[in-house]
Amino acid sequence: MAWYDEAVFYHIYPLGMTGAPKQNSYGEPVHRLNTLLPWISHIKEIGCNAIYIGPLFESVGHGYETTDYKKLDSRLGTNKDLTDFVAECHKQGIRVILDGVFNHTGRDFFAFKDIKQNRENSQYKDWYCNVNFWGNNSFNDGFSYENWGGYDLLAKLNQHNPAVKDYICDVIRFWVNEFDIDGIRLDAADVMDFDYMKALRQVANEVKPDFWLMGEVIHGNYSRWANDGTLHSVTNYMLHKALYSAHNDHNYFEIAHTIKYVGDMVGDRLKLYTFADNHDVERIYTKLRNKAHFVPVHIMLYTLPGIPSIYYGSEFGIEGRKERDSDDSLRPALNYEDYKDAIKTNPCTKIISALGKIRQSTPALCYGGYKELLLQTTHFAYERTLGKSSAIVTVNNSDGDVNMMLPCGCAGEYCGALSGKKATVADGHIQVMVPANSGEIWISEGAADEAFVPLQEIKIEKSPEPSTAVEKTEDIEAAKPQEEQKEEKAQINLNKPYEEMSVEELQEAILEKMRKNGPVTEYMLGTVRENTHHGSLLNWVRSFN
Q1: Residue 386, domain CATH
Q2: Alpha-helix runs per DSSP H in 306-362
Q3: Domain check: are 96 and 210 in the same one?
Q4: How far apart are CA 126 and CA 128, in angstroms?
Q5: Residues 401, 403: Cα–Cα separation, whole Å
Q6: Does residue 164 surpass a pLDDT of 50?
Q7: CA distance from start to end of the chain
Q8: Position 167 in a domain
Q9: Do the beta carbons of residue 501 and residue 511 sit within 8 Å?
Q10: Do residues 481 and 525 both lie within one domain?
Q11: Per DSSP, which regions of 206-296 are E strands?
């Protein structure tokens, strides 16, 4: 058992939360990170015991074009500010992991600047991928290089270069020695070289007991990245998608299928990083057609297998819509004074706080086995069992109350951790009522470390369902003229190396491999179509046997 097995994370995008300027002037440090200090007690109060914060280090704009890995971004303050922030978190019993942007750098990074200055004579010319002094780039440097995501602002590091590996490993040691951090979230882990990640894991094993490496992986077989040799965990984007779409579509079969699919992939040994939203996707409150579903979504987030995370501000039910050219609405500035009483006044904050405490006080929710008890499109029940203790979770996405008769693994009495209601075991079953658009966590006697104070009725107003359903991709495609469909398909060429394929061709190649293994469900089709990251798709198509 390690600290992260019992973690509930609070995710902070610091440049946004502190209201930092969008562009870095590289001027005198402004101590904005210190404005986050009051939030630490709030984070603890809502039941989180770990923080994932980043990106933090000197960069040009949004933070992922790193220019100095060993210096806090001057828009946020000084290295001492970060040291003090981590120390205060530790004082309040909260672990801290940082964002490790080790796949690419900004153009102001010392190695890239040396190439611009010394060209072929630069000792760093092999630090980046495919540097070609006969080419050019959008900045007219007189040489070309491989970028990340199509942006020349992000120069892709050559992860096969031993000097690059050594430098990044040294950065990790520096972060631990300087700031006393407890782990790292690897940005864009699904396009990282595996030997590179193995080197990072070796350093993680050396620097600190239970130092945690978690990677951003969009799609593919998660166990390729999360295992004993590479990372401890990865982001569970499959469950993220299922959590909101299953409620929007009133279809709990999608979540049940996802749990089984991911469980078969990673087994019981690995705990994935689970979330309802983050700095790259729309806020969960925005995505939900019925805002009342905020309750069952988060009950499931905190009770399904995995390590749950709350994105800053989402505990207040704030909204954020992804825009074509900007993620600013996903990463807003928040003033602590505006939210300091939210745990008493905001129904979303109340439920998140209650769930955090229940999670931390109920070992079965962290370590227990998972068993499906009842599954319908509108209601769902499952059990987490650890030894002789049990937690039964019931959720309901319909507008009417639901009665459930459920088998249970323990004798005696179960108590609703949110409502305080009792359910007595009779003939190996409990009978419970689950309110509309809500849920409950039924704890067996002795399963929790403490008694929970029942919440007063939490009322998150139901929003009206849209009058017309959103068209599905398949329907849109079917509506196109046949000539247009033929023209589009003619442009797909699967008879070439994966590296030369477009995003659309890689998607088709993945679907073709899936079809050879059995029927492709609508859910599987959706996971492929939603992934438009070329590097991620490339790794995914290579993962098939």
Answers
A1: 2.60.40.1180
A2: 336-339, 342-345, 347-361
A3: yes
A4: 5
A5: 7
A6: yes
A7: 33
A8: yes
A9: no
A10: yes
A11: 212-215, 233-234, 273-275
Question: What is the length of the chain?
Answer: 545
State percent of the chain over pLDDT 70.
91
- Per the structure block, which two tokens stand in for 333? 């500035």
Q: Which two tokens stand for residue 50?
A: 């770990």
- Give the CA angle between residues 102, 107, 111 to the nearest 5°: 70
Q: Show Cβ contacts of residue 51 under 8 Å, excluding neighbours closer than 6 positions.
A: 9, 10, 11, 12, 43, 89, 94, 95, 96, 97
Same domain (yes/no): 222, 118: no
Distance, C-alpha 396 to centroid of its chain: 24
Whether 164 and 223 share a structural domain: yes
Residue 206 has pLDDT above 90, yes or no: yes
What 368-373 contacts at long range (C-beta under 8 Å, 24+ apart), as own/partner pairs, is 369/268, 370/259, 370/263, 370/304, 370/305, 372/256, 372/259, 373/406, 373/407
91 and 169 share one domain: yes
> How is the chain split among helix, strand and coil, in percent rounded to 5?
40, 20, 40
Mean pLDDT (whole number) for 518-528: 67
Q: Which two tokens stand for residue 195?
A: 């030997």
Same-domain check for residues 88 and 169: yes
Angstrom distance (rounded) from CA 506 to CA 490: 15
- The confidence score (pLDDT) of residue 517 equals 66
In a domain, 417, yes or no: yes
pLDDT, position 449: 85
C-alpha to C-alpha distance for 110 and 481, rounded to whole angstroms: 53
Largest CA distance in the chain: 80
Measured CA to CA, the distance from residue 537 to residue 294 in angstroms comes to 31
Reduce the DSSP state of residue 316 to 3 states and report it. Answer: helix
- In this structure, the answer to whether residues 131 and 18 fall within a common structural domain is no
Whether 123 and 194 map to the same domain: the answer is no
The range of the structural domain enclosing residue 212 comes to 1-103+159-234
- The neighbour count for residue 187, using CB atoms within 10 Å, is 21
pLDDT digits (tens, 9 = 90+) for 67-120: 999 999 999 999 999 999 999 999 999 999 999 999 999 999 999 999 999 999
| E strand or H helix at 242 | helix 237-248
Spatial CA neighbour of 108 closest among 60, 56, 164: 60
Contact 394, 432 (CB under 8 A): yes
Band the pLDDT of 460: cuts 50, 70, 90.
confident
Residue that wins the pLDDT comparison between 438 and 493: 438
Q: Which of 231-240, 280-289, 501-510, 512-521 has the lowest mean pLDDT?
A: 512-521
Q: What is d(CA 37, CA 94) in angstroms, rounded to the nearest whole number? A: 12
Strands 273-275 and 307-311: parallel
